[in-house]
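so ive been stuck on this for like two days lol. basically i have the seq below and the ligand is flavin-adenine dinucleotide, smiles is in there too. i just want the complex predicted, nothing fancy, no docking runs or whatever. if the output looks off dont worry ill sanity check it later, just need somthing to start from for the group meeting slides
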Amino acid sequence: MTAPASISIPDLETVYDHLATAIDRAGPQKTELFLVKLALLNANALGDAGLFLQNIHAALQDL
Amino acid sequence: MHTPTRTPRHSIYYTYRVFAPWLPSAHPAQTRQKAVIVGAGPAGMVAAMELARHGVPCVVLNAELQVSQGSRAIVFTRRSMEILQQFGVADRITANGLPWRFGNSFYRGQRVFRMEAPHDQDDRFFPMINLQQQYLEEYMLDALLANPLIDFRWGNKVTAVEQRDGCARLDIDTPEGSYMLDADWVVAADGGRSGIRAALKLQMEGASYEGLFVIADIRIDLPLPTERLAFFDPDWNPGNTILMHREPHGIWRVDYQLPAGESPDAALRPESLRARIDAQLAMIGHAGTPWEMDWCSVYSARALTLPDYVHGNILFTGDAAHLLPIFGVRGANTGFQDAQSLGWQLAFVIKGLAGTALLANHSAERVGAAREIIDEAGKSTRFMTPPTHGFQLLRDAVLSLSLSQQFVRPLYHWRTSRPHEYTRSALNSHGDDNALFKAGPAHGAPPQNVRLGADDFLLDHLGGGFDLLYFSAAAAVPEALQQVVADARARGIPLHVIAIGAAQPVAGADQTLPDTDGHCRRRYGVAASGGAYLLRPDQHICARWLTLDATRLQAALNTALPR
Ligand SMILES: Cc1cc2nc3c(=O)[nH]c(=O)nc-3n(C[C@H](O)[C@H](O)[C@H](O)COP(=O)(O)OP(=O)(O)OC[C@H]3O[C@@H](n4cnc5c(N)ncnc54)[C@H](O)[C@@H]3O)c2cc1C
C-alpha cells in the first residue's frame, strides 16, 4: 500500500479560507445543501467509493 | 351472501361488461380439483393459462363480476409482451397500446436526463408499451374464456381456507350462498390485500415509504409524444415529484406527490385536484387546456415480499406474494413472470414429472427476483420520495448539481422492470459449458430474441415445454441425442428440438431455422456445429453446450426436473 497523498500546508490553508467563505456565501439556509454538493463533487474527483466511505467514517468521529 | 356489484364501474373511456355470476345450484356437485386459482388479475390469469398450456385443468375464482377498477397498470415491458405472446394476446396489445422508449427528467425547466431504452433490431417488442390494465385484462380474459381447460367462476369469493391431509378446502361465497371446494393446490393470486395471506397470518418483509402520491387519469389533448415525463421540485409543488405518461384513448396519467402531512381525503377534494393539475399543465406550457377526470386515488410506495411463496398446498403469486413500488412499473410486469414460473412448475409437479422440490425452486427463484426488485426499486423510491432528512439533502444536492454536472445525471434513471436472471437456480445444469461461452444468454437468463425475417422472430417458435436449440448444419440430429429426446418424451416431458443453421429440414428436429447469415449463432455465441441451448418452459436458459452429447443432455434434463 502506498501512503495516501496528503495536501500541503499552504494548500490546506487555501482550502480552509475558501471553504469558510463559501459557507458564508451559501448562507445558513443553504449551507447543508452546499456541503453535500461539494462532497459529491469530491467523491467524483476521488473516483473511489471505499476511500469516500473511510472519509465519512472519519468525519463522523468526535462530533 | 356475497353480492358483488352488478353496476358497471365508471370510466370515461372503457365500457365495462358485467358478467353473470357462477352459481353452484346450476352445476353438479363439486369434485376435488387439481388446482384452484383465487383471483383473476394479471397474475391469476397467466397462472391459469400456463397450467392449461401444459394440459392441467383449473378453476379460476373471481370475487367480482367485471375487470379491475380504475386504471392501474399502464406500462408493460418487453418481457411481459414476450410472455403474453405465448398466450396469443400480444397482438391485441400491440394493436391498441402506445409503444415508447424514452424518458425525460426535468428540473428548473431544464431537461437534466434523457433515458433511451435500447431497442434492438432483434426485438419484436418495444421496451415499453402503454395500455390501461382493463384492456389487458379483457384480452387475457377472452383467451381464458375460450380455453376448455379453464373453469372461470365470476362472483365467487373465497371466505375461508383450511389445509389438511395434502389438500386445501375453500369456503366460497356466491350471490346465492356458499359452497365448498377441495383442491390439491390453491394458487393465491388474490392481490395486494390478499385475504388468504391474512388468514394464514403471513408477514411480509421489506420497507414501506411515507411519501403519498395522487394518481389521476385525465382526458386531455396534449401535443406530446409517448415518453415518460418526470418533474422534480417544481415551483407549484416544492420538493416533490410529478410524473406524466400518455395512455391510449386520449388519456394521460398524472402522478404527483403530496406535501408532507397532507391527508389523502384533502388531496382528493375536487378543488385540490383541479388546482394542482392546472398548475402542472401551466408549468409545461399548456395552461387552460380543458381536461376531464376519469379516475383518481392516493398511493404510497411499498417494497415488501413474503419470504416464501409456498405454504403447504397454497402458493402465493403476484401482488398477493409481494407489494412493489410502481416506480419502474413493477407490479403487473413482475406478476406475469411470477405466474408463468408458477404455472409451469406446478403443472410439472401435478403431472408427476418432478417432485415438490420444483415448487421450492420456484419460490426461491421468485423470492430472489422480488428481493432484487425491492433493492432496485428502493433506490428509485428513495430518490423520488426521500424518506429522511439525509436522503432529502442528497436528492436536492443531486438535482442542483445535475444542472451543470454530467456525472450525477444517471441517478435520475428509473431502473425500469427487467426480467430476473436465475443465475443460481437449482435447475441450472452443472456439467455443461456455461462458463465457456463468450456471448449469448447465460444460466438462468431469459432468452435473446433474434429477428429471422419479416415478422418472424426466434421467440415466435418457442415455448410450451422445454426447447432444445440445436445449432448444426448437418442433415440430422445425432442418433444418441434423438434417443434422449425420445426417452424424455416417453416419460411425458414436453421437449421440442429446434435445429438452427441448416438449409434443409434436419432429421430429428421438430423445426429447422436456416439462419443463413449466421446471425442467430452469433447472438447465442455458438461458433461451431453441435452447440446447443436448453430452455425451460418459461424460456429461461438452464443449460448450454459448445458441443452437446447425449449424456450431458440427459444430465441437464434430470437437474431441471428434480425428483
Ligand atoms: C395506481 C396504480 C398504478 C399501477 N401501475 C402499474 C404499471 O404501470 N405497471 C405495472 O406493472 N404495475 C402497475 N401497478 C400494479 C398492478 O396494477 C398490480 O401489480 C397488478 O394488478 C397485480 O396483479 P395481481 O393479479 O397480482 O392482483 P390483482 O390485479 O389485484 O388481482 C386480484 C384478483 O383477486 C380477486 N380477489 C381478491 N380477493 C378475492 C377473494 N377473496 N376471492 C376471490 N377473488 C378474489 C380480485 O377480484 C382480482 O381479480 C399499478 C397499481 C396501481 C394501484
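The pocket of flavin-adenine dinucleotide is lined by residues B 38-44, 61-64, 68, 72-75, 133, 157-158, 189-192, 195, 215, 299, 318-320, 326, 329-333, 335 (CB under 6 Å). Chain B has three domains: 24-203+304-374, 206-302, 434-560.
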